[in-house]
Please model this.
Amino acid sequence: MTTWSVPGLPSEGRCLVMGVVNVTPDSFSDGGQWFDVATAVRHGLELVEQGADIVDVGGESTRPGAARVSLAEELARVEPVIRALSREGVTVSVDTMRAEVAQAAVNAGAKLVNDVSGGLADPEMPRVVAAAGVPYVVMHWRGHSHSMDSRAIYGDVVTEVREELSKRVASVLAEGVAESQIVLDPGIGFSKNSDHNWAVLAGIDQLSELGYPLLIGASRKRFLGRLLADQDGTPRPFGQSDDATIAVTALAAQAGAWCVRVHDVRPNADAVRVAAAVQRARS
Model:
């Protein structure tokens, strides 16, 4: 297991935990719960108390089929939350595909830009990140939410994800992003069916060979609910797949992931510590 360190972000000698604050009415598992600023800020602080190393604030749902919101609406949702959490000393990331939102978030105190499109949705994004000098999550992405399920076609998903991520890295490096800024995300649930997601998780070691820290975001996603389906085939509700998420977290941490992005922080924070303890005992 490799322990990664990303400049400007916490370094704990173990897999980090990123807690999710969706300032949206329509996110797949918790839409509307943290939609006003005060509630979102309070939730972010609670996540830190529960063990989150980073708090990821997003103002646009990326669930399958979700419609995009306007730039003005996304800014209004995330900027005050990021500013308030940053003032409290929280390490905040912004979950956005828009360069203007990323810039406003960094100005408000965000230390990381988490772009699920890997710079494909907004060509200005890599240049903004390069100028800001903050770490940048480049995710594997094949298209917006309304069409991504139709793009889940692979011969060898791990090989193709690896190749497509490598191309995105080359592209953002050409725009001035430094290698030390780059974090990769294989995009669990994005243009991938259940079998693809399991294969990607099993291939973390191969993706790590690209030479960059890996962020894994499997929390409460559909493939977990389908694995845990009732006898009649009814998938487990999103909020009832947290135990499976914890199992994925432990396995990802053991496989060398730099960070896991989760909704239920406390038990996942426990899981990464267990994985770290096992690794220490082996070394």
Summary: The longest helix spans residues 157-174. The first strand starts at residue 16 and ends at 22. The radius of gyration is 17 Å.
